[in-house]
């Protein structure tokens, strides 16, 4: 494998990291590649992709809350930066809640260089209403979640609501992540979204839950930009109903897999409801082999 | 550099079990010098092959591999054929034949289908070692039904000590289940409600909604055990390892049930609560106030 192929393979490993374990995976990969210089530059795109698709949360400099670092949060570079500034300008994200943009380091996960940013005045009032409703929803259903609501650039009728919740418990060998994202399109009157769950349990083993759920539904007419706070609350009520429904469906799927699939793979005990009598198993088989002068093995034992 | 192998094994304990084969292949390509260490330590899903001589299915893993060929427990032949492939001594082969018969019965009793294979090999100190493999796959009859697979790998070492034998067992079970109904489950119930006349607006919404998704539970768990058993004759090795493996599988099946359906589910419900937490908070406040009121 040439160095470029090794970096590519390392990048693939990083993108598969379970919740909260990116640093452990990075340490393993460092040891395997054992060439820090080429690694650090080479895996930056993978780290960026991992952080933005996994809805990594960042401390907003100068504020008491966290915001989500994702593709929707990326601040388009103004284009005056050239060459060396390219990577840095690529890694500016913004928190609409505090109207702050910041630089995010995808390796150290630190945010810096805060700057005030002016949101689009047309979409901002409804975005704020959605954000308030989303924060309320977060309080009601998540123990430890972060939400960000972004306007879609160039549109005053499309908004992206993102939610992420993480629980890392390395002392008890488990971690979990819930991600959901919804695009609210008030012109098309649709809500499309996805829920992604990953859980890792790794005490003397490696067990993972991984789920995908995509949804697309039509909005009731009451949800419009002119509807203000009431319409925003209704939109989040749709999100709440969808997520609760999915969670209930997941509980049912668990029950079904436990009842049918698990039992269908291996019984708890044989049909006889007792363990095997190994002396009889052997006696029976040996006896059978003696009577059949030609067994499956071609020769009698 | 044992350090490197440790890093590779740590990595395999973290990356998704559904991609174990691709990831092992990548690591082997990255560090070809450590291929044997890695292939010998990371359990991969068992492959089902067909014995050309008997037509019977058997399981392939690192323990019955020689180069690119795999030995069948039924005919003792390698596929693709090998002139000088490693085979057990005639005495051990005799025991291997009987063990395969016995575990075939075990498989039928517990798995009601699937494939089993037992491979034995001589050890330098005069003892022997072996691996008992079991695999069952459930393929859905319709797209909505769940699918799954179970792979058991039991590696043991036997040491004779007079009329006793000492066994060391390392057992790994790989279990995978996929369900495609979780996303649409809720909506079915809802339209059933709608037919009853209630929630008409929600019924209309349900008809317009499109949902799709997949739930995958996958992984592996490993446990070890040691035990002494009396030894009457060579066949005692089969009853002894049989009992030990049966106990281990019963214990591990309970453990898998607890982790797959208990622990991972608990984490999900720890991330998001179905009940309204804010309501519960307010209720607690109210209760506190009431208690304070009564005390006054």
Automatic annotation (TrEMBL), chain A:
GO biological process: actin cytoskeleton organization; barbed-end actin filament capping
Molecular functions (GO terms): actin filament binding
Pfam families, A to Z: F-actin_cap_A
Keyword annotations of the record: Actin capping, Actin-binding
Segments of this protein annotated with the region Disordered: 72-94, 105-124
Record-linked InterPro entries: CapZ_alpha, CapZ_alpha/beta, CapZ_alpha/beta_2, CapZ_alpha_1
Cellular component aspect of the GO annotation: actin cortical patch; F-actin capping protein complex
Segment forming the signal sequence: none
Ranges of Acidic residues composition bias in the record: 79-88, 112-123
Superkingdom of source: Eukaryota
Function according to Swiss-Prot or TrEMBL: F-actin-capping proteins bind in a Ca(2+)-independent manner to the fast growing ends of actin filaments (barbed end) thereby blocking the exchange of subunits at these ends. Unlike other capping proteins (such as gelsolin and severin), these proteins do not sever actin filaments.
Known partners and oligomeric status: Heterodimer of an alpha and a beta subunit.
Record family assignment: Belongs to the F-actin-capping protein alpha subunit family.
Protein name: F-actin-capping protein subunit alpha
Gene source species: Ganoderma sinense ZZ0214-1
Automatic annotation (TrEMBL), chain B:
Gene3D superfamilies assigned to the protein according to its UniProt record, in alphabetical order: 1.20.58.570, F-actin capping protein, beta subunit
Gene Ontology MF terms: actin filament binding
Subcellular location: Cytoplasm, Cytoskeleton
Bilayer-spanning residue ranges: none
Any single GO BP term: barbed-end actin filament capping
Record keywords: Actin capping, Actin-binding, Cytoplasm, Cytoskeleton
A GO term from the CC aspect: cytoplasm
InterPro entries recorded: CapZ_alpha/beta, CapZ_alpha/beta_2, CAPZB, CAPZB_N, F-actin_capping_bsu_CS
Composition-biased stretches (Basic and acidic residues): 200-214
Region (Disordered) location: 180-232
The protein's role, per its UniProt record: F-actin-capping proteins bind in a Ca(2+)-independent manner to the fast growing ends of actin filaments (barbed end) thereby blocking the exchange of subunits at these ends. Unlike other capping proteins (such as gelsolin and severin), these proteins do not sever actin filaments.
Assigned protein family: Belongs to the F-actin-capping protein beta subunit family.
Subunit record text: Heterodimer of an alpha and a beta subunit.
Name of this chain's protein: F-actin-capping protein subunit beta
């Amino acid at each position: 494998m040439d160095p470029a192929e090794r970096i590519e393979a390392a990048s693939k490993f990083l993108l598969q990291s379970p919740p909260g374990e990116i640093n452990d995976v990075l340490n393993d990969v460092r040891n395997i590649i054992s060439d820090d210089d080429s690694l650090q530059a080479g895996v930056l795109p993978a780290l960026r992709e991992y952080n933005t698709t996994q809805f990594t949360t960042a401390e907003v400099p100068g504020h008491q809350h966290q915001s989500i670092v994702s593709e929707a949060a990326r601040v388009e570079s103004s284009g005056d930066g050239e060459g060396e500034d390219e990577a840095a300008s690529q890694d500016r994200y913004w928190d609409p809640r505090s109207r702050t943009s910041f630089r995010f380091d995808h390796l150290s996960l630190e945010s810096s260089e805060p700057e005030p940013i002016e949101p689009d005045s047309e979409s901002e009032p409804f975005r704020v209403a959605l954000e308030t409703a989303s924060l309320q929803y977060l309080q009601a259903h998540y123990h430890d979640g972060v939400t960000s609501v972004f306007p879609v650039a160039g549109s005053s009728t499309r908004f992206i609501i993102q939610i992420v919740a993480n629980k890392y418990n390395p002392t008890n060998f488990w971690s979990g992540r819930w991600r959901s994202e919804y695009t609210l399109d008030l012109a098309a009157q649709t809500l499309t979204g996805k829920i992604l769950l990953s859980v890792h349990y790794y005490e003397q083993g490696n067990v993972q839950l991984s789920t995908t759920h995509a949804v697309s539904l039509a909005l009731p007419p009451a949800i419009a930009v002119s509807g203000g706070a009431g319409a925003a609350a209704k939109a989040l009520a749709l999100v709440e109903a969808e997520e609760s429904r999915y969670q209930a469906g997941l509980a049912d799927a668990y029950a079904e897999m436990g009842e049918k699939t698990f039992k269908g793979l291996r019984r708890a005990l044989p049909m006889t409801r007792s363990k095997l009598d190994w002396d009889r198993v052997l006696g029976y088989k040996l006896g059978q082999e003696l009577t059949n002068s030609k067994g499956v093995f071609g020769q009698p034992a | 550099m044992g350090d490197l192998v440790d890093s590779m094994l740590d990595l395999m304990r973290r990356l998704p079990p559904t991609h174990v084969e691709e990831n092992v292949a990548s690591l082997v390509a990255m560090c070809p010098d450590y291929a044997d260490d890695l292939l010998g330590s990371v359990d991969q899903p068992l492959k089902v092959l067909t014995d050309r001589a008997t037509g019977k299915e058997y399981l392939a893993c690192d323990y019955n591999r020689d180069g690119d060929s795999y030995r069948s427990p039924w005919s003792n032949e390698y596929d693709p054929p090998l002139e000088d492939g490693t085979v057990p001594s005639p005495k051990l082969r005799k025991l291997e034949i009987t063990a395969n018969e016995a575990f075939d019965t075990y498989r039928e009793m517990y798995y009601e289908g699937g494939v089993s294979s037992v491979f034995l090999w001589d050890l330098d100190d005069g003892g022997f070692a072996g691996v008992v493999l079991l695999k069952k796959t459930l393929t859905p009859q319709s797209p909505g039904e769940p699918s799954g697979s179970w792979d058991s790998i039991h590696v043991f070492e036997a040491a004779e000590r007079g009329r006793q034998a000492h066994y060391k067992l390392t057992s790994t079970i790989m279990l995978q289940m996929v369900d495609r109904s979780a996303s649409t489950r809720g909506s079915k119930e809802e339209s059933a409600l709608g037919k009853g006349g209630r929630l008409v607006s929600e019924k209309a919404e349900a008809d317009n909604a499109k949902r799709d998704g997949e739930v995958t539970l996958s992984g592996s768990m490993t446990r070890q055990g040691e035990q002494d058993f009396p030894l009457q004759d060579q066949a005692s090795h089969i009853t002894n390892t049989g009992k030990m493996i049966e106990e281990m599988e019963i214990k591990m099946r309970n453990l898998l049930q607890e982790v797959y359906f208990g622990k991972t589910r608990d984490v999900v419900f720890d991330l998001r609560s179905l009940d309204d937490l804010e309501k519960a908070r307010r209720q607690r406040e109210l209760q506190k106030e009431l208690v304070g009121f009564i005390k006054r």
